[in-house]
Amino acid sequence: MDDTARRLLQRLVRRIPSQLLKPTLEKWGRLKRTQLDSLDFSQSKYSLTEKLLSVCEENGSSIKHITELELLYVIDNPVAGKWHAYQFIDPEDDAHTVELMQFKEQFKSHLTELVQNVSIKMKKHTDEAVWIRLAWGQSFSRPNHFKPTYVVYHLQSPYVFMTSMNSKHRPLLSQALVLATRHQAVKNANLSGKLNAIRDLVMRQYEHVFPTKFPSNISENNENTKNPNIKQEQEEQSSNRLQMACEAFGGGKLPEIQSAVYNLETKFRGHAKNMEERGGPFKCVVTFSGTNILESLRSCASSGIASTPVTPVLSSIPRKGRNYFLMTDNNPGSSQTQQQQK
């Protein structure tokens, strides 16, 4: 093992929780059963790391094998870090026929033509997603395996998900993906957050509720309500609010979107002369944040804290699959807004 492989393995072992280390190494399959049994996972991370380094040295493990281990861990535990969604546009006629081997060969071929020193590791997951680990190098330097970029692409789907990367690498990666998937271009979907959450949102993998003339009744336990007519009216109002909230945001468990950002640009409308003479629009940023803002907004609407029907400003998060919005005036003097791409 060279120094880079040793340092990467040390950092990876420190990163993996102790209870996940053994199953991850078993899935890796690079250790013999006797070697795996010789590891005492109740030891301190330092002692365990030194023992594992010794075993990997004995096996002649290379940086290729260590990056494979890291990819396996990230696939099973993608919660760390911030992911960004991108959308392919203008598919070619044969875009729906692209298969795994064809995609892998085309992607590697195109990216290595664009970047001289890049390390590419690819693996197909059980959910049909292709996981890609990229380590970028410079013209005269080896790939930096300590700052990799991860990409997740579901074959024949219009979306791809990436972690953060250097701005100069993004257009090169985008070009390789566009060519390999048979599309004309790829654009920022203005959606970021945890991988599972943004993937579920754009791929509509949550319960949808559609408008109905017969919403289900919801009973409220209110001991102070004595009049049965008042009670019936309250139940109907509560049921209607819940129906409209679920139509706007979805039913059941919702994707764990943790933030939504609204960048507002608008002109002043009033009679204050000094404000009218102010050049340029007013700008401000409104951010909603929490462990799951979709469930929070649905709860506010269903409980009556927020008005219903839900404003399109909020319902656009699940409807458009975005959590970044730029809102500007349609024209001078208009109070309406439009949502644009970032």
TrEMBL record:
GO terms for cellular component: chromosome, centromeric region; nucleoplasm. It is found in: Chromosome, Centromere; Nucleus. The keyword Membrane does not apply. Residues 214-240 have a biased composition (Polar residues). GO terms for biological process: CENP-A containing chromatin assembly; chromosome segregation. Its main location: nucleus. Keywords: Centromere, Chromosome, Nucleus. Pfam families: CENP-N. Residues 213-240 are annotated as: Disordered. PANTHER family: CENTROMERE PROTEIN N. Belongs to the CENP-N/CHL4 family. This is Centromere protein N. It comes from Neogobius melanostomus (round goby). The lineage of its organism: Eukaryota, Metazoa, Chordata, Craniata, Vertebrata.
